[in-house]
Description:
The structure is a single chain. The protein is α/β, with parallel strands linked by helices and 224 residues long. Helix content is 36%, strand content 23%. The strands form three sheets. Strands 2-1-3-4-5 form a five-stranded parallel beta sheet, with helices on both faces. Strands 6-7-8-9 form a four-stranded antiparallel beta sheet, with no helix packed on it. A three-stranded antiparallel beta sheet has the order 10-12-11. The longest helix is centred in the first third of the chain and has 14 residues, at 59-72. The radius of gyration is 19 Å and the shape is elongated. It starts with a strand and ends with a strand.
Amino acid sequence: MQRKQVLFIADSLDNAHKFQQILSAMDVDVSAGSSLQFKKLLSQKGDVDLVILEVRGDVSAELANAEQLLVEAGGVNLLVIIDESMLSEFRLPMQVKADFVVRGAGSEECSARIRQLIWPGNENSSSDFLTIDNMTLNLATYQVHVNGEPLDLTYLEYALLAFLVTHPGRTYSRDALLRRVWGFDYYGGSRTVDVHVRRVRAKLGPELAQHLETVRGVGYLWSN
């Protein structure tokens, strides 16, 4: 297996020890630095295969900056470490291959996501892709394409769509969707499901949106 180059960028020590242990078990060389050193380190290394980026502040701004730098560097892959509280507004970059882990994720999950990004050709199987009409979901990379174009979904919009699409023909109440998609720690009202369904339908367009049906008095289902 070809030895790969990994750049670890973080402004805290929270994840440094864990990722040092994870990466030490892989056939990779690792360089580390702060967000202020990101651009300099990326240009110095030149042959980086993966950047692991810990996001602490403005997630949209930090990811936009990172995406621009990685595109300029030739399309370097990206693994983002984020807080769970950031998920509602989180979007994966569209121009580079990217994935994410929530801060506190287990070592096995982190290792699996790194391996999916760092060794192209081994990361996806046919079961990772779902195609419905002109829409394709990549369940491994959390991306949706319609007519070959990427759909700009937040993480929770993607998670809601992916859950319903992978459980077709079954009706789920709003409370059930909150438990299955948002998780047990969500304390907001169930009407947030309606808001996300409207957003997903609008982004899918009228033809695909017909699959996302409202079952009056019960909830929602995806019909193939």
